Amino acid sequence: MFGRVVHLLGWILSVFRSREDLVLENLALRQQLLALHAKRPRSRLGSIDKLFWVALRSLWTGWKKSLIVVQPETVVRWHRAGFRLYWTWLSRTRRVVGRKPLTKELRELIFRIVAENPTWGAPRIHGELLKLGFEISERTVSRWVKRATRNPDPVRRWLVFLRNHRGAITAMDFFTVPTLTFGVLYCFFVIGHDRRKILHCNVTRQPTALWIVQQLREAWGFEQPHRFLIFDRDAKFSAAVISTVKQNGTEPVRTAFRSPWQNGVAERWVGSVRRDLLRHVIVLNQRHLRRLLREYVRYYHEDRTHLGLGKDTPGGRVAASVPPRANKITSLPRLGGLHHRYIVAA
Questions:
Q1: The model's pTM
Q2: How far apart are CA 189 and CA 290, in angstroms?
Q3: Domain count within the chain
């Protein structure tokens, strides 16, 4: 009975409605009847039905009154899903305009080139990138070069200096050795950076500036001295020592405070002497220490391989040309048997 009253009121109100609303309502009801009478196991709205209600929602304000098969919120959800699909499709198929974005790898390569070559400008870097096969404009390179760090690491700059002048660099330093009867002795040495050769080595109880000057003269002799001499800021390397170095045509280079890595070649040799020799013997006196160092320098030059020289010796050790058999290898003791050298027996 209540349903009939509702239909009667709806029929009476329809008399006062416009013809457009009646047509749209009729169309909405027919579409729902078709969807309900579809021959399917279960009534289900397809894509066409969803598009119909999304379009009707945009054209007719009273679409909710005639909606029976689903809730109005469902139609709103269909509408939002359609917008998401549309903009997803548009963003994928839309033609990209403007400059091509630079990849992270290319940006890091530009920063690396700037750090490794601080004197290069954008045109030089752009030319290098073109030779590597990158399609990029010089203006883009210039923009990214401005964002790069122009001041390279001081450690890297120092290493570049050492590599470029390796053949012209020497270093000098002291290290102490405790003895059994003479207390502490000072060992002075001069080492070349090119082949890590020990140019001079001596021992004293009281190192003075005059003694150091005499050792430098004995190290160089009548040969042309190296261009650079690296040493730390020890008080023993006084103004008299620096003046003598300059008079011989060598430029003194003092390391920074508490920076032993800047004289790394000399520091490594000190470590080698301690590990290979001094930790295994008891030094009696100055004469004993001088003899031990003389034997170690000979072993260091002729027998001991060096990682920095491609596992060769500073003096240049000739490798065997023919692979030897196991019974033809002879060992020669060095430094009283602390180390050995192996050769092919004749």
A1: 0.58
A2: 12
A3: 3
